Amino acid sequence: MNSRTLYLRLLGYVRPHWRMFALSLVTMVVVAASEPVLPALMKPMLDGSFVDKDLEVIRWVPIALIALFVVRGFATFVSSYAMAHVGSHLVMDLRRLMFDKLLTQPVSYYDDAKKGQLVATAAFNVTQLTEAATNVLTALVRDALAVAGLLGWLFYLNWKLALVTFAIAPPAFWVFRYASRRLRYTSREIQRNMGDITHVLDEGITGHKIVKIFDGREYETRRFSEVAQRARRFAMKQAVASQAHGPITQLLAALALAVIVYIATLQAAADQTTVGGFVSFMVAMLMLSAPLKRLSGLTVTLQRGLAAAEAVFQLLDLDEETDTGTQDIVRATGALRFEGVTLNYPGRDRAALDKVDLAIRPGETVALVGGSGGGKTSLVNLIPRFYRPNGGRILLDGIDLNDIRLASLRANIALVSQETTLFNDSIAANIAYGRLGQVSRDDIERAAEAAHALDFIREQPEGLDTLIGENGVKLSGGQRQRLAIARAILKDAPILILDEATSALDTESERQVQAALENLMQGRTTLVIAHRLSTIENADRIVVLDKGHIVEMGTHAELLARQGVYSRLHALQFREEKDAN
User: Fold this and answer.
1) For the segment 214-247, what is each residue's pLDDT rounded down to a tens digit?
2) Its pTM surpasses 0.90
3) 3-state secondary structure string across 499-568
4) For residue 564, which of 378, 359, 369 has the smallest C-alpha distance?
5) pLDDT band at 342, cuts 50/70/90?
6) Which terminal residue of the chain has fewer beta carbons within 10 Å of its beta carbon, N or C?
């Protein structure tokens, strides 16, 4: 996307705040229009006061000077406030849009995305847009008008001298163009590198226990030093590009000024100009350097903002999760059917699932077991349409999942996984997540009691209102898992997915969680991915998966009697547990 297209699109997000934006522009025009007034006052002040001794001029020039700076000060304040208002709203609007976009991305997007890059784009890069979208334009209007006004006054005073200023335009434009390309490139790399820094920081902070236990401090320090050094190099490249073209442009202006002073001196000697005219010309010429310098400095801000716009718009342009469904289901019975279902992950040679056929009755508990990579998690991930099968179809109550609206489908599914996700909020907010304003305090307590969590909740300093920290860091593993179960109980969905919900717990915690799960599973179609086979012996059916195929199916007793894959897995695990004890 070229710079013009990027900038016009960026200005589109300013449109909702056009009134404040217009106010800033109007007041900025007032500031710019007042710029040539000061040198214009120099001529009558010097010629009328010091040369002609005009008393009326002596009286009104000081008043005019005070009025000029009062108007300029007020207009500058209003313009700055209005632009800050627009800029803050722009950042807020874009952050909301980006966060909404991230929440609508399919699960497959997060398989490859770097969290650090996403956080950097939403938290850091977007702030670079405000100056490009707002301050650059207003500064451009102010300084361009100031330059035009000052040049107009210079031509009015002495058109021959004014022509000299145009001699610096071609070389100054070439310097500006070269600096713009370098600044765009370095800004893009700096912002990308900020994502790498955020990524390494996040991994080091999140995995601080692993870093300590496995002596990874030196490795992590080296990783961070590499990304920090890369950021430093590009920062220096940007500094060279941004700082070098300013002095070059000013040197060109100084050369033009030297020529102008020489010619003006010759004209004064020949009585072709007055003292007031000469001083007024020189003041206007000197004042011209400030807006020219600011205009050249806008290159840095503009290119930094456009580089940030590329990252922000790249995120906003992502395709959202596809929802082809047209039907809504109020409450499913829970009848599921897999017909010839095949699933291939990108970049994998072997299919995760290969022509799987499976029918699950409403209210039935089906356990999925097998070795790592057998396809258990892949199978259950297809039910809420986290992924789409490459072949075959899945039916819920006789309706193809692709024909059911995503919101309606997922409203009928509850999930409790091994990696419990909790939020840095109160216990009550985590149990009632997604429906906090729709349920009563009594409903939350009943769900907690059914999950065998009410006892430990009452022991917390503020009960249900206790803040649990990031991902429930203030709670034990068993307590976190029981909160996740309480959340699923409160949702009361007809389909329940348990993805190794007890595999990471000790024996006592597993016993409590298992009791909570039994309450949760009553009357629901339940799919259980089990690590410990002892926890699924009472399942209605056990399905054994191996390399994407269903190799065995039956009850616990039937599969043991068959002396097949399940029997071997059970015997191996029983022997390991016996050896451990």
Assistant:
1) 566 776 777 778 877 887 787 777 777 666 666 7
2) no
3) ECCCCCCCHHHHHHHHHHHHHHHCCCEEEEECCCHHHHCCCCEEEEEECCEEEEEECHHHHHHHCCHHHH
4) 369
5) very high
6) C
